[in-house]
């Protein structure tokens, strides 16, 4: 059976034409999927019974089953482990950001105070989505990298993760506010399917999720960064950098053997020149490795003149990596050193540490590989 989320609107239109359905039915199905968030043929009550039966016989709405989910103790994070039909595992995370004074311990399944419009000004519902089962990049501090590459996800399998959480949030009178491709896998290693998923979610007649509310995170695949720049999308770009010299970065991220830091930064300069959009550099703060003021000054020297921002976050611990997260004081010094050199920096909160919310950690725990 075909996954309905794998079908773009022209393909869906052609399929219904083969079923001798009028062309306008495709628009009804599309809107039911992405505007009303229907997840079964029975919900499409505006369609004929015969068409709903054809959909049931030929299409699936759920490409995975929920193997397990976990909620963080503070109620801000839910991580879901999905099992695909081929028994591969993927993860998606919902992170809640809002005004803690208004609702200090919200449950992911409870409805916060206020109307949707009132809540929208102060709350975000960010999804962290996977693009591959496993990952081929082999970053030593990443649980997914320790797991190895299993397979690419189809565009529909990527979209379905968003729809799963969108349907959940709808029941709470809430909506997704941001989508980050920072889950399992390297999005630019699955470029075509990742972009197709974004296009499907961005479609103005469907889910209509704004391009600027997507962020793609890459370890620095230079050809794909340049291709992405040439396409001049409004989607945000984040680079997992984590080191300021090639020797250190190679030890952490094997991809650096192929694409050196300076080559990655040149591609980022090209991206900024083509799009006039800022690049975000992600930096996992590892105690005694890349969290000193000296490293911050070297990083600032590398980034000077580039329209960018540094997102630093204390390392999420994994069983396969001995490094430790930096402490709050060292993180503050790192941020201060960058900002004194003219590079804006944010120290991000770690989310869901108590539920293995780092990329690949829950799948690794279930399979015994982390």
Task: Please tell me about this protein's structure.
By secondary structure, the protein is α/β, with parallel strands linked by helices. It has two domains: 2-60, DNA polymerase, domain 1 (Orthogonal Bundle); 65-367, TIM Barrel (Alpha-Beta Barrel). 36% of the residues lie in helices and 19% in strands. The protein is built from 13 helices and 14 strands. It has helices at 9-18, 24-34, 49-58, 116-120, 143-147, 155-170, 191-202, 222-231, 246-252, 261-275, 293-303, 328-340, 361-367, and strands spanning 2-3, 59-60, 65-71, 77-83, 89-97, 124-128, 132-134, 149-152, 178-181, 214-218, 236-240, 279-285, 308-314, 345-347. The strands form three sheets. It has a ten-stranded mixed sheet with strand order 3-4-5-6-9-10-11-12-13-14. Strand 9 (178-181), helix 7 and strand 10 form a beta-alpha-beta unit.
